[in-house]
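**Backbone description:**
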Amino acid sequence: MKNKTLINSALSGLLVLGVSSVALQANAAEMEKCYGVAKAGKNDCQTANSSCAGTSKSDGQKDAWVLVPAGTCEKLVGGSTESA
C-alpha cells in the first residue's frame, strides 16, 4: 500500500512539473530568476549544493532561485538576479 501511494505521489509530481514547465517556457521571456527569496524546499531548480528543484535547505538561501515576473526581483527583500 505504501509503495502504491509513493508511486502515485511521484507520478502526480511529475505531471505537475510537466505542466508547469510548459507554462514557464511560454512565458520565459517575461520571467527572471530571483535568487535569495525562495523558502526552504521551494526553489525552482538546482543550486550549487543540490541538483533538483525543491531541495534548498534554508529560507533565503543565496544560491536558490525561483522564477518571478521580470522586474519583480529587485522589489523583493533579499532578492537578486545574480547568485551569491
User: Anything to note?
Assistant: The two ends are 44 Å apart (CA to CA). The first strand starts at residue 31 and ends at 35. Residues 2-75 form one domain.
